[in-house]
């Protein structure tokens, strides 16, 4: 816990060609009134000009500056004002962190630890404060001056300069601060929220690129509407800005009401952009917009909790893209990405849990594990709780934590408490690295008319985690009869204990088995013939699945499964099997012939 909290932060930037002067005025209060402890501020490549406490310049012996910190040895033990002036050199900052210049424009990037390159600050996400930002700059070189929140005041200054004063009424961590100044033009539009407020939307680019922002604007409006409809989340300010810059490390950044994007994720023209470019723009515009609630209004207590905002927001953008296009196609592409990038990471020397235990440099921890596997973890809550249960969990999460910096357990607890759910050892998904291997053996007993699925699981060792515990794996299952139709499921026995599957008169065709042990058997009763199982429907858990399904089972699923993802998956597993058969035929000098069933199945369509 920090010893001091920051209530308000008033920033002033005097932007110049050879130096920029940053003045910061912070209302500080000690966590425990009456207790003074050293106040340690982060700073990186900063030239300190002055420090004042309650208006008085500090004497040399009252503070200490090192290459990474400014320490006030004994600040006042009750609320005080801290004023710091620093000098920085954005024109020679090539780190793409802090304040830098991109194609002649000033621009910031503060996540994760870039704010400390702007001014001395407690640069950690649990320090949430209300900011104002005054920007002064040459008017002809930098006609557009942007920061977070609402524009309160603007005007001309002497010497060809002008200024703008921005005020962000929402508390935020320093990593969400942003400033942009330069020669930009905007595409403007409006969005009327569900409560009837009109929000001005602006997408800023160099003037020649404005025509290429139409799809980005469409995507933004679609995202705003979707978040209202699906999660009841309304945008909270009257202005939303997006800026496209050519020099940007990551895809984009969710700074409060001033999202900054790599140009390639904003600009598209029908002449040159592919369908995939359009889909990427929709997804990333959605992603950054959705952070306004999952990341900004509710943020991370510390950077170990990164997946709290990223896993959840990736899940939200995946769902958004699914609803805007084809759910099955989107799921296939997301699972393919997970398998080709995250699985290798989870199996290699960089394997780490969704919530890492340590990091050397925070900017190296924006990984496919934190993002994509993190999204799968969020998806499992939804699979276990259903859409309405998941929504209840989200509602409780915001009710409890709006305006706070919280942890993955807080999210877990909101999901659990809103539904009175039993999530067993689910939290292991955050702490154990490695992709679990799940084996399934099936058997049908015509006498008892029962169908059994025997599961066994293994989580491979990963660096620093030689021994693993069994995980809680939600396995969505359906059973197909010989005509290819889903069999209505009524009851299933888990290690002998009876579970009712259908709680209402509505027939149930997919049920979620809760596999929690190293070995566990599920038995479906009342099954009239040997079914073909559709296992892990919709890819209900991020595991490697081995089953005893035969080639003919796979052909059958490819033709009939009502779950689109599994129909595709059956084709993948089958094609791999057939190719490997051909390899072994070749090695035995057997003439190569493609299984004719494959053509028959394909012709059926
Ligand atoms: N938070 C950004 C996102 O997920 C990614 C990012 C991280 C951008 C760090 C810049 C620096 O949308
Ligand atoms: Zn994100």
UniProtKB/TrEMBL annotation:
Tagged with keyword Ribosomal protein: no
Annotated source species: Iris pallida
Family matches, as InterPro entries: Aminopeptidase_N-like_N, Aminopeptidase_N-like_N_sf, PepN_Ig-like_sf, Peptidase_M1, Peptidase_M1_dom, Peptidase_M1_pepN, Peptidase_M1_pepN_C, Peptidase_M1_pepN_C_sf
An example Gene Ontology molecular-function term: aminopeptidase activity
Protein name per UniProt: Puromycin-sensitive aminopeptidase isoform X3
Domain Peptidase M1 alanyl aminopeptidase C-terminal, residue spans: 552-584
A single GO BP: proteolysis
Family: Belongs to the peptidase M1 family.
Protein keywords: Aminopeptidase, Hydrolase, Metal-binding, Metalloprotease, Protease, Zinc
């Amino acid at each position: 816990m920090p010893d001091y909290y920051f209530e308000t932060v008033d920033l002033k930037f005097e932007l110049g060609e050879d130096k920029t002067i940053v003045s910061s005025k912070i209302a500080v209060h000690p966590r425990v009134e009456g207790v003074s402890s050293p106040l340690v501020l982060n700073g990186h490549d900063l030239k300190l000009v002055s420090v004042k406490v309650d208006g008085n310049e500090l004497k040399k012996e009252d503070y200490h500056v090192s290459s990474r910190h400014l320490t006030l040895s004994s600040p006042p033990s009750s609320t005080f004002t801290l004023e710091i002036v620093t000098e920085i050199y954005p024109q020679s900052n090539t780190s793409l962190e802090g304040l830098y210049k991109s194609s002649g424009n000033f621009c910031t990037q503060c996540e994760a630890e870039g704010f400390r390159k702007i001014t001395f600050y407690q640069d950690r996400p649990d320090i949430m404060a209300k900011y104002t930002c005054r920007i002064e700059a040459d008017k002809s070189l930098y006609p557009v001056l942007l920061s977070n929140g609402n524009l309160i005041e603007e005007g001309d200054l002497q010497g060809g300069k002008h200024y703008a004063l921005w005020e962000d009424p929402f508390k935020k961590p320093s990593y969400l601060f942003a400033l942009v100044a330069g020669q930009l033009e905007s595409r403007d539009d409006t969005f009327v929220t569900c409560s009837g407020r009109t929000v001005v939307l602006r997408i800023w680019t160099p003037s020649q690129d404005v025509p290429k922002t139409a799809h980005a604007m469409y995507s933004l409006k679609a995202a705003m509407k979707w978040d209202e409809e699906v999660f009841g989340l309304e945008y909270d300010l009257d202005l939303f800005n997006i800026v496209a810059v050519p020099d940007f490390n990551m895809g984009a950044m969710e700074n409060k009401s001033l999202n900054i994007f790599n140009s390639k994720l904003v600009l598209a023209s029908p002449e040159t952009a592919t369908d995939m470019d359009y889909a990427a723009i929709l997804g990333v515009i959605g992603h950054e917009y959705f952070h306004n609630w999952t990341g900004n209004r509710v943020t991370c207590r510390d950077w170990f909790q990164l997946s709290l905002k990223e896993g959840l927001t990736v899940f939200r953008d995946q769902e958004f893209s699914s609803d805007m296009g084809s759910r099955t196609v989107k799921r296939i592409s997301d699972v393919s990405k997970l398998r080709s990038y995250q699985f290798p990471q989870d199996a290699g020397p960089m394997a780490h849990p969704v919530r890492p235990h340590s990091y050397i440099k925070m900017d190296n921890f924006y990984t496919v594990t934190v993002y994509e596997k993190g999204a799968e973890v969020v998806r499992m809550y939804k699979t276990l709780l259903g859409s309405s249960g998941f929504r209840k969990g989200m509602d409780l999460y915001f009710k409890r934590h709006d305006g706070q910096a919280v942890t993955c357990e807080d999210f877990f607890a909101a999901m659990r408490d809103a539904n009175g759910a039993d999530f067993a050892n689910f939290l292991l998904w955050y702490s154990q690295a490695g992709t679990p291997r799940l084996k399934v053996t099936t058997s049908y007993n015509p006498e008892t008319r029962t169908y059994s699925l025997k599961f066994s699981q293994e989580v491979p060792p990963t660096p620093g985690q030689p021994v693993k515990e069994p995980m809680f794996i939600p396995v969505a299952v359906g059973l197909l009869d010989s005509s290819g139709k889903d069999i209505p499921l009524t009851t299933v026995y888990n290690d002998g204990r009876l579970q009712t599957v259908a709680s209402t008169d509505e027939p149930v065709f997919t049920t979620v088995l809760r596999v929690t042990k190293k070995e566990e058997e599920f038995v479906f009763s009342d099954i009239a013939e040997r079914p073909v199982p559709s296992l892990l429907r919709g890819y209900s858990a991020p595991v490697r699945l081995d089953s005893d399904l035969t080639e003919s089972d796979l052909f059958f699923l490819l033709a009939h499964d009502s779950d689109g993802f599994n129909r595709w998956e059956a084709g993948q597993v089958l094609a791999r099997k057939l190719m490997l058969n051909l390899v072994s035929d070749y090695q035995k000098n057997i003439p190569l012939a493609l299984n004719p069933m494959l053509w028959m199945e394909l012709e059926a369509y």
